[in-house]
Amino acid sequence: MAGKPGVVFDVDGTLLDTNYLHTVAWTRALRSHGYDEVTMEHVHGAIGIASAGLVEHVTGGQDEAVTDAHSQEYEAFQDDVRAFPRAADLMRACHGLGLLVVIATSGKEKDLDWMLPAIGIEDDIVEAASTSSDVDSAKPAPDLMQVAMDTSDLDPDRTVAIGDTVWDVQAAARAGIRCIALTCGGIGEAALRDAGAVEVWRDPADLLAHLDDSVLADLARSGADD
After folding, report:
1. Domain 4-17+82-224, what fold?
2. Residue 108: C-alpha distances to residues 2, 101, 111, 133 (Å)
3. DSSP state letters, 163-208
């Protein structure tokens, strides 16, 4: 059987409680550049799209100055970033099941330097990571997940993504893998299921508590059969 079983984790809104911080930062950035008509609801629904794509999604055009302003606004929230309960434990549990743990984030490569410590996870648990620095098109395009999978030689049939937005679910589908969705990023269960999520849980702690009922357990069994 080609490839290995694994889990592709999103970070923002999935492992780190950052979606609402990003929403405020983007809204401030947009309003400071004259986009007063863009609401926080609209911005929140776009969180998870890479920066340039997010600006285009909410304004209909490109504006690099807004992207730069968002980075400055978000820096003020760095000390407020917290991991969701048991996020690191979920990653360790997946690793303990024999699944390769990889990360696919729309953030920049340098963000991993603070993201992993914020999650509280050890470097040796994470097999590989792909960031917006590695691709031309980030989520909802499949490129981020595809790079992470190719780097770790993951078998699409035995790999699942874990994310929190419809963009994660769409990116996973386009990469040929299933997606478990979490509602802790602020997107409702109905929207996530409509996008194609195979499972929906509240947060990492909820998924960890139901690990034996999840497709993750099936992936672990498939790995044991190798």
Report:
1. Rossmann fold (3.40.50)
2. 30, 19, 5, 6
3. ESSHHHHHHHHHTT-EEEEEGGGS--HHHHHHHT-SEEESSHHHHH
The domains spanning 4-17+82-224 and 19-80 adopt the same CATH topology: no
What confidence tens digit (pLDDT) does each residue in 105-157 have? Answer: 988 888 899 999 999 998 899 999 998 878 888 788 999 999 999 999 999 99
Separation between Cα atoms, residue 69 and residue 90, nearest integer Å: 34
Cα–Cα separations (whole angstroms), residue 118 to 122, 146, 222: 11, 25, 31
**Whole-prediction pTM:** 0.94
* CATH number corresponding to 19-80: 1.10.150
User: Domain boundaries in the chain?
Assistant: 4-17+82-224, 19-80
